[in-house]
């Protein structure tokens, strides 16, 4: 594979990535996916009257009927722009910011708060820390749905930011097979294989196998990643009404030369350090290995009267081992010396056991048909973390020599169990979609949650015993066949693990979230245009307040209010021209109405467009742009990141009926910018890069 890809590159393909309108394997066993495909316009899901989701309330509703903002990115969008990492995918979603604070630790935020709610196939994964360790590969997913705003109905707890729902690829009714080869900048090699179809003559047993490997260098000194992804799924129609599905997936991410923390941004006199984009505080001997495994079983029974019962059991096993190097203090502006380091080895094991079941279907009331869902979930999460911290003094060389010199590996005294925590969460929820009149629909429901925790973390006991009932209510009014008005309200219940200056765990943050807006469809439902205003209030939200002598952080609970608005359009302007664009404006205030969280951009704009020339071997050209306003933070001196824009380009063409080539150029203008100012350190994002991908259909 290496020889072939090098030859393609040297032949003038230079650098590129993927896209193919006809090669993706579609999940034609699920009605929701069929609706998506019916309303898909070459790479953009037209999120309107026919596209449906259950990620908001558990009810299967069209997005016109859903009283919240929802964005869906499908397979064609993923392939067109080479979005093989969830980081890159979410960076294209309206109102979502990706905070790459380190090479292998990433936060996401939306509407002023961290995203802590994640789902797989609509099943809420409780007590996720809101951090993505390593890279999460998109090869396993058919599409990704992002519901912005509070979503207590389906996740039970969390910030009023957004909920990310990963929708798995599933076994298909007919045989389909696809593969891909990719080569990109910094020796980036990628291989994909995806086979699905019936396993018996009757088609009642179906399977799917997925594999991907990516081995890539980096623009950053020392950094290299090798990732293997496996998935196997089996679906069995036990009877015409009962389908059993089971699956297993593994993402094995091995990263070396990793960042723990990032670059000190100022000299000791407060002037900024002018680093090259490749600058890193890491060393070749550091690593951060993550093995993420998930197994699930699912039973889905459909009744004659439109009702169905679905039960899902999920086991998630997450293991990591990291040898890390952290740099602190600021360099002298004359000598370049003064940066010190510390290092530790950190193995950890996390286990999640989740059982979710619900029943949904229609019912009659006052001569009209309505929808109801009733469900519950119970889960247990355990986490063990060890620390093996080196006491050796680590001194960095002159900051201007970091590209050619690195610090030596220290010695380690031996590990101890630093954290042992167990969380148990139980919840019961119910919601109804009332058809009050033909144009007026109301969604009303509640989520009752109980959370208990025990254990300790780095010398601090972490007990919790909290419960909350959160109501949800929303309404949608169709002004005409093209335009609808909507509004929604829900409570916020956000359990927290941070400790205060007295080493006590902070109580859960509480608040309220409001949203109202307009949804509309144009050009025969091909273009979907929405606008929303929103307001979120949280009391007692954890905010960084300082560090203990051992380097651990402590927090204070503060009141935070976010107001803002969003505008979004997605779909097609013509049969050949697709468009997605979104604008977000925020106002974030803390205690006494003062601006807070200055690392969050107050204004963002995102757009992606493609145009296809069918007569020229389905040549498709496209561009994506991400713009954000200025952000800042305070280290020993204020650090500011000016407003900037990043432009990505793509072009794809059918080489044969079964082979398609796609070229991607990311950061085409070679913009130099910092990945995040969430912490008082940062590093530079990737400069211009490119990749070439070949997709094969069999």
What's the short story on this structure?
The chain is built from five helices and 41 strands. By secondary structure, the chain is mainly beta. The strands form seven sheets. It has a 22-stranded antiparallel barrel. A five-stranded mixed beta sheet has the order 5-12-13-9-10.
Please name the defining characteristics of this protein.
698 residues; mainly beta; 22-stranded antiparallel beta barrel; five-stranded mixed sheet; 41 strands; globular
Q: What do these coordinates show?
A:
This protein is mainly beta. 5% of the residues lie in helices and 57% in strands. The strands form seven sheets. The protein has a 22-stranded antiparallel β-barrel. Strand 28 (464-478) and strand 29 (483-494) form a beta hairpin.
Any chance you could write out the topology, listing elements then pairs?
Blueprint (H helix, E strand, L loop, with lengths): L1 H12 L17 H8 L1 E2 L2 E2 L6 E2 L7 E2 L6 E6 H6 L5 H5 L5 E5 L4 E6 L2 E2 L2 E4 L2 E3 L5 E3 L7 E8 L3 H4 L6 E7 L7 E9 L3 E11 L6 E12 L7 E14 L4 E15 L6 E2 L22 E16 L5 E21 L11 E26 L2 E22 L4 E2 L20 E20 L4 E18 L2 E2 L2 E15 L4 E12 L14 E14 L4 E21 L5 E20 L4 E13 L13 E11 L5 E10 L2 E4 L3 E4 L2 E11 L4 E8 L14 E2 L6 E9 L1
Parallel strand pairs: 9-13
Antiparallel strand pairs: 1-2, 3-4, 5-12, 6-7, 7-8, 7-11, 9-10, 12-13, 14-15, 14-41, 15-16, 16-17, 17-18, 18-20, 19-40, 20-21, 21-22, 22-23, 22-24, 23-25, 25-26, 26-27, 26-28, 28-29, 29-30, 30-31, 31-32, 32-33, 33-34, 34-35, 35-38, 36-37, 38-39, 39-41
């Amino acid at each position: 594979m290496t020889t072939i890809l090098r030859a393609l590159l040297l032949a003038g393909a230079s650098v590129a990535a993927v896209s193919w309108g006809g090669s993706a394997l579609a999940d034609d066993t699920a009605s929701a996916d069929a609706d998506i495909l019916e309303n898909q316009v070459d790479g953009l899901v037209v999120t309107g009257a026919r596209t449906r989701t259950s990620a908001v309330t558990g009810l299967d509703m069209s997005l016109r009927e859903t009283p919240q903002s929802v964005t869906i990115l499908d397979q064609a969008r993923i392939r067109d722009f080479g979005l093989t990492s969830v980081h890159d995918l979410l960076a294209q979603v309206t109102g979502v910011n990706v905070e790459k604070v380190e090479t292998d630790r990433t936060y996401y935020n939306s509407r002023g708060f961290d995203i802590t709610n994640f789902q797989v196939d609509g099943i809420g994964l409780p007590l996720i820390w809101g951090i993505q360790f390593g890279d999460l590969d998109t090869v396993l997913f058919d599409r990704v749905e992002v519901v912005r705003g509070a979503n207590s109905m389906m996740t039970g707890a969390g910030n009023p930011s957004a909920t990310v729902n990963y929708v798995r690829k599933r076994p298909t009714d007919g045989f389909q097979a696809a593969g891909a080869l990719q080569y990109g900048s910094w020796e980036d090699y990628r291989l994909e294989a995806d086979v699905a179809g019936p396993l018996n003559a009757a088609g009642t047993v179906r399977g799917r196998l997925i594999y991907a490997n990516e081995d890539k260098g980096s623009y950053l000194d020392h950094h290299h990643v090798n990732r293997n992804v496996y998935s196997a799924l089996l679906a069995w129609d036990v009877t015409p009404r009962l389908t059993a599905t089971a699956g297993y997936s593994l993402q094995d991410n091995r990263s070396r030369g990793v960042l723990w923390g990032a670059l000190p941004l100022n000299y000791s006199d407060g002037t900024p350090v002018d680093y090259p984009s490749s600058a890193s505080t890491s060393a070749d001997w550091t690593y951060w290995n993550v093995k993420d495994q998930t197994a699930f079983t699912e039973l889905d029974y459909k009744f004659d009267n439109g009702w169905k019962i679905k039960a899902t059991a999920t086991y998630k096993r997450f293991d990591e081992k990291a040898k890390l190097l952290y740099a602190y203090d600021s360099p002298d502006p004359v000598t370049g010396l003064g940066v010190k380091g510390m290092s530790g080895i950190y193995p950890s094991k996390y286990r999640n056991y989740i059982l979710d079941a619900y029943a949904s279907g229609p019912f009659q009331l006052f001569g009209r048909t309505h929808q109801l869902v009733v469900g519950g979930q119970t889960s247990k999460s355990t986490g063990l973390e060890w620390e093996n911290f080196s006491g050796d003094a680590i001194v960095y060389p002159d900051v201007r020599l970091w590209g050619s010199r690195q610090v030596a590996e220290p010695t380690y005294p031996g590990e101890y169990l630093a954290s042992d925590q167990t969380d148990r969460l139980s919840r019961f929820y119910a919601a109804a979609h009332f058809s009050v009149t033909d144009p007026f629909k109301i969604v009303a429901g509640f989520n009752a949650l109980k959370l208990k925790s025990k254990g300790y973390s780095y010398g601090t006991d972490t007990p919790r015993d909290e419960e909350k009932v959160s109501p949800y209510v929303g309404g949608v009014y169709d002004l005409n066949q093209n335009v609808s008005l909507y509004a929604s309200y829900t409570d916020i219940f956000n359990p927290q693990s941070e400790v205060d200056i007295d080493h006590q765990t902070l109580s859960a943050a509480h608040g309220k979230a409001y949203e109202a807006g307009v949804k509309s469809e144009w050009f025969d439902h091909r273009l979907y245009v929405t606008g929303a205003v929103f307001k979120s209030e949280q009391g007692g939200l954890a905010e960084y307040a300082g560090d203990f002598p051992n380097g651990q952080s402590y927090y204070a609970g503060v009141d935070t209010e976010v107001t803002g608005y969003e505008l979004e359009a997605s779909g097609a302007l013509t049969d050949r021209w697709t468009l997605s664009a979104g604008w977000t404006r925020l106002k974030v205030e803390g205690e006494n109405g003062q601006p807070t969280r200055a690392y969050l951009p107050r204004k963002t704009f995102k757009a992606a467009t493609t145009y296809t020339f069918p007569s020229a071997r389905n040549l498709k050209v496209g561009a994506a742009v991400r713009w954000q306003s200025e952000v800042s933070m305070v280290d020993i001196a204020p650090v500011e990141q000016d407003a900037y824009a990043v432009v990505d380009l793509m072009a794809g063409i059918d080489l044969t009926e079964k082979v398609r080539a796609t070229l991607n150029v990311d950061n085409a203008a070679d913009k130099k910018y910092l990945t995040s100012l969430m912490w008082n350190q940062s590093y530079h994002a990737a400069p211009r890069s490119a990749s070439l991908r070949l997709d094969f259909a069999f």
